[in-house]
Design brief:
By secondary structure, the chain is an alpha+beta fold. The chain is built from eleven helices and ten strands.
Length: 341
């Protein structure tokens, strides 16, 4: 359930539309601007009572269209849904949302990851011309796969997995930025929509071809991310944009170096299979022998696969089969969150 805390808004010097420092409401204080996007601003905030840092995503909510409001509320609903009972250790956790009454901004509060993102790590390694070690890659891949499997088991497709949306907290990576995620209807029909989504370099062939798609678009995007972590360069390249898109559409990725074990290369190639039905799902990959030592040695968070044990007693929480298609989730503003209108 979305926490709408408009009653907690405090005095008139709240966070402004320009994103400057100031009180957001009485529990939080802005300390640093982190970034700017089409949605608004992201800032680092400090919770006064616990002295914990969080990220606030401030969205210009008051003046956006009803359709855009539906999109924002759908994002909040999805984040709140997957953050129940503590969420997942390798997903950026949603905390709460509220409206700043003086500015009309919607504030979404999420956990703060203190070590940047995977895109930054890849860039730094590229400058040093030093690849990551394979054991480190195994651990990161397993963390991302367990997070993706958690989403899929809750009938959610991320749809925008890429290094810039994998956030680092110490040595741990966490999937974040669920702004393009979709909840999937179990009873979806074959005529479900095939909306374009995410960054073109990480879109699966079926999306480029305008076909219906399901959870395996996330496996493809994880494969593209894994390729970059291994090779420190994009999986799909070309002399111009059209050649890049053609290579993606036909799964013609760049050469894979020979310094990696055959087992890891096999995993990567499986994730980048042209046809979705030929890609393994997240749980299949997690069961690969290359991860056996990590799991048995306790290096994976003990709650990383907890949802799989829970699903045995809750069949309805298991992700629908591979034929389930993406459907839009429309939020009724009048019934869902009247105070956000």
């Amino acid at each position: 359930m979305v926490a709408v805390c408009a009653s907690h808004v405090h005095r008139s010097n709240l966070y402004s539309l320009k994103g400057g420092p100031g009180l957001i409401y009485f529990l939080y204080r802005c300390t640093q601007r982190l970034g700017k996007g089409s949605f608004g601003y992201a800032s680092l905030i400090l919770r006064d009572d616990t002295k914990e840092y969080f990220v606030a995503k401030l969205i210009r909510y008051k003046h956006i269209s009803v359709k855009e409001k539906e999109h924002v509320l759908r994002e909040i609903k999805t984040m709140a849904h997957i953050s129940n009972e503590g969420g997942h250790p390798y997903l950026v956790r949603f905390r709460e949302s509220f409206v700043v009454s003086t500015s009309g901004q919607l504030c979404i509060v999420m956990d703060y990851c203190d070590s940047g993102d995977m895109a930054g790590l890849i860039s730094a390694q590229r400058k040093k011309k030093a690849p990551f070690s394979e054991p480190q890659i195994h651990l990161w891949l397993l963390q991302m796969l367990s997070a993706a499997d958690f989403l899929h088991s809750h009938k959610v497709i991320h749809r925008d997995i890429k290094p810039a949306n994998v956030f680092m907290h110490g040595a741990v990576c966490k999937l974040g930025d669920l702004g393009l995620s979709k909840q999937v209807g179990v009873a979806a029909t074959k005529a479900a929509k095939h909306t374009q989504c995410g960054s073109p370099l990480y879109l699966a062939p079926e999306v480029h071809f305008g076909q219906n798609y399901g959870k395996f678009v996330d496996i493809w995007a994880l494969g593209c991310t894994l390729f970059e972590v291994m090779m420190l360069s994009h999986a799909f390249i070309g002399s111009d944009t059209q050649e890049v898109l053609t290579n993606i559409a036909w799964a013609q990725h760049a050469p894979i170096g020979d310094s990696w074990t055959p087992e890891l290369v096999t995993v990567l190639k499986g994730m980048l299979a042209l046809k979705a039905e030929n890609r393994p799902d997240a749980l299949d990959i997690i069961g690969n022998s290359i991860f056996r030592n990590i799991i048995s040695s306790g290096h994976l968070h003990p709650k990383a696969l907890r949802h799989r044990y829970a699903s045995k007693s809750s069949p309805t929480s298991v992700f629908a089969d591979a034929d389930t298609m993406v459907v839009e989730v429309h939020v009724d503003l009048n019934n869902y969150a009247p105070s956000l209108k």
